[in-house]
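Render this sequence as a predicted structure.
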Amino acid sequence: MTAARPLLIVQTGSTHDHIRERLGDFHDWIAAGLRDGGAEVVVFDAQGDAPPPAPDTVAGIVLTGSHAMVSEREPWSEALVPWLQQAVQAETPVLGICYGHQLLAHALGGEVAHHPGGVEIGTVRVQRHAVGQSDPLLGDLPDEFDAQATHWQSVRRLPPGAVLLAGNAFEPHHAFRVGRNAWGVQFHPEFSDEALRSYLEGLGPVLEREGRDAAEIAAALRPTPEAASVLPRFARLALAS
């Protein structure tokens, strides 16, 4: 019996040291969700010197979040663009999360920029659109679900041919699909409310400048099991493709 190919986590950045020491890093949280779906996981550091593995050598690809900004077009980030285009063309399952969602949109011809409303942060309510009811990844979610979010940039224009799957009043492009097997989600399925609370502890002065209260946002945090279910669901889809 041939062993299943692993899922590849493309690490586009890391969390803050004080969070990583206590809770782990982005790729750790994503790996836990993928393993719940039965996947073996390997991690590729996008900011390192090595090229990424060929898309056809893995069962699927997950792009992490990052403290970088897609619009700054750092060389390591731009180097992923043709590779992502190749992966999508080959119908390798791809899931981009936050920065990864934005990078996927950019790679496929969309537009990424700072959100004119500033930061979206906290446990937010996301509405799945009617077309999402039949989507292989998001179809099992309720029409409205809670998700953790933290982002200053967003996808301002979707790639050509993208199907808009979910959004809310602040961020209309919370989830999209291109083709059969490539998804982007602006929300964080890998984040626990504890992880986001740790972010908020250090963002008080920054949020205050935007007229936001970190303590108030932290007090409203709640678990988001529906959003978290996206990761094991993606793993199962990738392994079955």
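Summary. The radius of gyration is 17 Å. Residues 139 and 211 are 36 Å apart (CA to CA).
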